[in-house]
Amino acid sequence: MKTALAHTAAPDADAIKSYPLVLDLDGTLLRTDLLYEATLQFLKRRPFGIFLLAWWLCRGVAYLKHQVAMRSDLAIQLLPVNEALVGYARGAAEGGRTVIAATAANHELAAKVCTRFPFISEVLSSCERQNLKGTRKAQVLTQRFPEGFAYAGDSAADVQVWRAAQSGVFAGRDPHILAELSKNTALEADFSKPKPNVSTWLRATRVHQWAKNGLLFLPLLLAGQFLDLDRWSACIAAFVAMGLTASATYIINDLLDLEADRQHWSKRSRPIAAGEIGIPQAVIASIVLLSAGLLLAIGGAGLPAAGLLVVYCAVTLGYSLNLKRVPVLDVTVLASLFTLRLVLGAAAAQVRISAWLLVFSMFLFLSLALAKRSTEMGRKSASGHGEAPSHGRGYVAADVPLIAGFGLSSAIAAIHVLVLYLINDAFSDSLYRFPQLLWVAPVLIGLWLGRVWLLCGRGLLHDDPIQFAVCDKVSILLGAGVVASFAGAALIP
């Protein structure tokens, strides 16, 4: 029987191609891990099931995998795969080479995955009592293929298997593991995946969305505290804290929404959904970002601001778990999260905030959230799937007229409330030396909202109106005009 010792001589290329090709699944053929995917789905349905997971783990990893697999209903066809390796394995099978899967994943999930790849003729996997990983996998494969085999893997646990194999295929990210493979086994092919870089993490944390947090400075500016450095310092700390916290919640939302994102025309390219960032790394990043945000808020913006951040996190988590699937309530929650930024800015700067401004914010961001939903449903309807509820949402194509009507009404209401603010607060506020200039603001904001809904109706709006606003030249110009009108009203005699 062949042992897991380093080979004394490397086989030639023709001999290598004659060996059965054994494929690992997690992190190799798939760009994700079945256990983590199934666990996330389980916790999304039963958040308090985390205690049950701990109990199962006490009985062993194999038992945990089995129990989670029994309760999972993963959309196997949507899982991201290593396309280059899939093509290589398919070509090997078409050339007459035996291709099988050997994975530490539980048999229930592994069997479902392999039905997606007809070129895989056999599946070796974990069961309730055995975790097929590392040395145990090497032993099983050596017994199954005493004449030799080639193995495709990605992690440190696969090193023991490569040592027992005649050739190795690498599909991981760590160059040190690739070097370890090459020391003991002939390298048949290299399908290395790039490690997540700064750009990948910036996309995952959606740093461009930090532009929303500029709302935190609005109460400070409207209160006329332009030169108070202490208030500016507190607002800047709140701005960064909100950014870190929001980035953490974006990652959590992506983790809870993997299946829906993978069915979405643009969200499928998000780093976590596409498998560019692993689920464990994403969980760790969200914990670090959330902790940093709360600590910064406590130290730099004060306890009231930190308390509002906790409220923001709770509402966002509720939105990610369930509220996003309730029509109309979902967009109302989104608008409230934007308005909460104004309240947080006022708490950090310790200034009064006008009730008119809060109502204006609710109507404005409600309109934008409805534009986002209208765009999503318009694209879905155009693809011929408009009768089914949108992925992760509760809307159907028949709701588009209602969404558009509600959105346009909210836009008009926002302009109306802004006019009432100018009449009732701004003109009587000693902050403004030339308040007549403020009449420019509702005109420009009305033009911008009209542009948003015009493009939405034509199907030309980006499905994120905020991202559209920070990239669209016309929007930037109109926004600059609004800022200039308030600045001029305050500064011009």
From TrEMBL:
Per its record, how is this protein called by name? UbiA family prenyltransferase
Task: Return the InterPro entries for the record.
Answer: HAD-like_sf (IPR036412), HAD_sf (IPR023214), Prenyltransferase (IPR039653), UbiA_prenyltransferase (IPR000537), UbiA_sf (IPR044878)
Q: Topologically, how does it sit relative to the membrane? A: Multi-pass membrane protein
Q: What is the superkingdom listed in this entry's lineage?
A: Bacteria
Q: Where in the cell is it found?
A: Membrane
Q: Mind listing the UniProt keywords for this protein, alphabetically? A: Cell membrane, Membrane, Transmembrane, Transmembrane helix
Q: Where are the transmembrane segments?
A: 233-256, 277-297, 303-321, 328-347, 353-371, 402-424, 436-454, 474-492
